[in-house]
Predict the 3D structure of the following.
Amino acid sequence: MTQKYKRTHNGKDIVVEAFKWTSDQYQTDDPEWIINAIEDGRVTFRRYGAAWPIIVMVIEYPDNSVGYAFVNDYIVRYENGMIVPVSTVTFEHHFREVNDNGQ
């Protein structure tokens, strides 16, 4: 489920939407914005490894570079629509959940 979070960067509060990606078949409440990104090809999935394969979410950026999300990473959508993966440790250190008013 998507939530609103904020972080302070260069003295300015930035509010984002984010969810924790579990790569689980039971994760059925993905936000519409990630479903749209999957449908239009900006987000794809790859399987790596042979003996113990893992699923990786691959997020294409506007400059054609990519970001990789691993299981339990947060998927963040900024106000400008850019989608980026953020590791759990980084996300939980820098972002705080906020209510609908941004508080």
